């Protein structure tokens, strides 16, 4: 089972685990990032599933939706990425989502923006 937040699970297709496995196999169990994460890998990232080639530490490949839309599971929109590349790739998206969530929580609590 993939580590998907319970609140987001409904956005993924029922066969997500099979789709994820197919993408990791397609990648040859190696991170497919070629710098999309903002790191200059001088080509493809060397991290492999279960082994960071830089540190030797445990590395788990994840599957990134390039457009950040879990419902869009076309293989061309999916990329196997090590955790580091995936987190860096999603950094701006997570920041925007966090700001929207906080703003909504404040509005729900009656803490909207002051008019001045």
Give the secondary structure arrangement, pairings included.
Blueprint: H1 16-26, E1 61-65, E2 78-82, H2 83-108
Antiparallel strand pairs: 1-2
Task: Outline the structure in words.
This protein starts with 15 loop residues before the first helix and ends in an 8-residue tail after the last helix. It has one domain. The protein has 116 residues and is α+β, with helices and mostly antiparallel strands. It is built from two helices and two strands. A two-stranded antiparallel ribbon has the order 1-2. The protein is globular and about 50 Å long.
User: What spatial order of strands do you see in the largest sheet?
Assistant: 1-2
Number of domains as seen in the coordinates:
1
Strand-pairing-aware structural class: alpha+beta
Envelope shape: globular
Stretches where pLDDT is under 50 for at least 5 consecutive residues are none
State the helicity in percent bands. Answer: 25-40%
Mean pLDDT: 84
């Amino acid at each position: 089972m993939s580590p998907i937040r319970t609140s987001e699970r409904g956005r993924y297709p029922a066969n997500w685990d099979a789709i994820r496995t197919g993408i990791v196999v397609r990648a040859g169990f190696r991170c497919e990032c070629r710098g999309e994460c903002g790191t200059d890998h001088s080509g493809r990232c060397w991290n492999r599933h279960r082994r960071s080639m830089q540190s030797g530490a445990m590395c788990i490949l994840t599957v990134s939706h390039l457009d950040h839309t879990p419902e869009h599971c076309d293989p061309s929109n999916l990329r196997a990425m090590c955790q580091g590349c995936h987190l860096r790739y999603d950094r701006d998206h997570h920041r925007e989502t966090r700001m929207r969530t906080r703003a909504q929580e404040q509005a729900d609590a009656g803490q909207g923006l002051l008019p001045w």
